[in-house]
């Protein structure tokens, strides 16, 4: 069976600096209200890298700073995936706790707790770790990244909880090369890394690409 293609959405070329400026403007326009910014894209698109750069650039200058909360913290535990027969397609939409992610975003939007503790996915152990990311009440900007921020079904409430969602759409060959390299860096043999990237990951990429039209911005980074 041929590898499914994700059909890269039409993207506007931009730079990280330009996106930092856009995020800065979002916070300024919010007039003291917390901003929740989503970064979405297929596996290997560079979501976590961009999200981390946004937080690093803006946190020192914003009153209350910025925080990064990843959707991947809601991966189901490996033992659960094995028990339910889903381990061979880890990363698919139904291998996450979508309801838990929605509940977290609602708490972050409400901003009525001193601290909200978010989970974090640790690639070195391929497991989520609970309460790993504290988000204080005064945090002005929360950047959240993941594959399924624009998906329907149990993920549908996510879109309405975010102020903006940016879809990253790099060249597909570049994205796949990054993905293979990442899997190898975290312990997969080259053949296994290639098979997983072009198998389960690529099947998920096709699903993600179909949601791009719901984004506020579709971008391909030029830096």
In short:
This protein is α/β, with parallel strands linked by helices. 38% of the residues lie in helices and 22% in strands.
Examine the secondary-structure arrangement and name the CATH architecture: 3-Layer(aba) Sandwich
Number of helices: 8
Across the major sheet, the strand order is 1-8-7-2-6-3
Shape: globular
* Class inferred from helices and paired strands: alpha/beta
> How many separate domains make up the residues?
1
Kindly report how far apart the N and C termini lie. Answer: 35 Å
**Topology, number of strands:** 8
Unreliably modeled segments: none
Percent of residues in helices comes to 25-40%
| Largest sheet composition | 6 strands, parallel
CATH overall fold name: Rossmann fold
Task: Give, in order, the helices and strands.
Answer: EHEHEHHEEEHEHHHE
